[in-house]
């Protein structure tokens, strides 16, 4: 039920935001032949990015609590070993940058080529679709969802829904959301956050694949031949 409230809040929030795009655009005053951003649109962009990060990671907490109730233990929330702690530091930088950057960024830091109403709309669409797809992943994983590698393992390999053609769709849809955030706040910092996330996700995905190959053997190796890591294998 809590997840439904999150989804409803997300839809209402972003529909309201999308309805504000036209109004925000009216506050934009062109200058020297390039796109500039008015105060209303700047505030809209900041709210969208920060709220999307809060909603996403709030949803992760809700999902962790839901899974904990089903399996009777924490779904590997604490990092184990030096490598995992280093990865968690990377994730924390991503999370902090995603949520906090809007409070410090100014329009002067924007990449001019990405300041356009179409980029604003595309950014909103990517954030919304990325989160909806993440909820799809949660539904497909069910009680098998984990944050870290679970040496206890699960009895079956999830291959339904988005996992049919992608091995790590949750990481993929995080990147979709961060790409949307980068369009909303097109700064070098946004691009660095996206790159850092890709690096962390790639390392984590590789570790998970090694673990799952050890657990499921030939079944997982066969699964890898017909699925992509972050992008669907058609």
Give me the secondary-structure category: mainly alpha
> Measured on Cα atoms, how large is the radius of gyration?
19 Å
Biggest sheet: strands, sense, closure? none
Helix content: 55-70%
How much of the residues is beta strand, in percent? under 5%
Shape descriptor reads: elongated
The arrangement of helices and strands along the chain is HHHHHHH
Total discrete domains: 1
Question: How many strands in all?
Answer: 0
Describe this structure in words.
The chain is mostly helical and 234 residues long. It has one domain: Up-down Bundle (Four Helix Bundle (Hemerythrin (Met), subunit A)). Helices cover 68% and strands 0% of the residues. The protein contains 7 helices and no strands. The N terminus is likely disordered.
């Amino acid at each position: 039920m809590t997840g439904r409230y999150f989804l409803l809040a997300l839809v209402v929030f972003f529909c309201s935001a999308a309805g504000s795009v036209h109004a925000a655009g009216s506050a934009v005053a062109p200058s020297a032949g390039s796109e500039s951003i008015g105060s209303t649109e700047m505030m809209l962009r900041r709210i969208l990015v920060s709220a999307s990060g809060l909603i996403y990671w709030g949803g992760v907490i809700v999902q962790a609590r839901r899974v904990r109730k089903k399996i009777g233990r924490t779904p590997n929330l604490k990092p184990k070993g030096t490598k995992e702690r280093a990865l968690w530091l990377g994730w924390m930088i991503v999370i902090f940058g995603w949520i906090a950057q809007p409070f410090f960024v100014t329009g002067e830091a924007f990449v001019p080529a990405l300041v356009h109403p179409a980029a604003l709309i595309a950014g909103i669409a990517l954030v919304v679709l990325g989160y909806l797809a993440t909820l799809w992943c949660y539904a497909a994983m069910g009680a098998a969802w984990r944050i870290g590698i679970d040496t206890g393992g699960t009895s079956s390999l999830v291959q339904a829904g988005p996992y049919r053609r992608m091995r790590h769709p949750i990481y993929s849809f995080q990147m979709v959301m961060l790409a949307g955030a980068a369009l909303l706040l097109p700064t070098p910092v946004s691009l660095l956050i996206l790159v850092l996330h890709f690096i962390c996700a790639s390392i984590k995905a590789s570790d998970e694949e090694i673990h799952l190959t050890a657990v499921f053997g030939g079944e997982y190796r066969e699964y890898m031949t017909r699925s992509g890591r972050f992008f669907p294998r058609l």
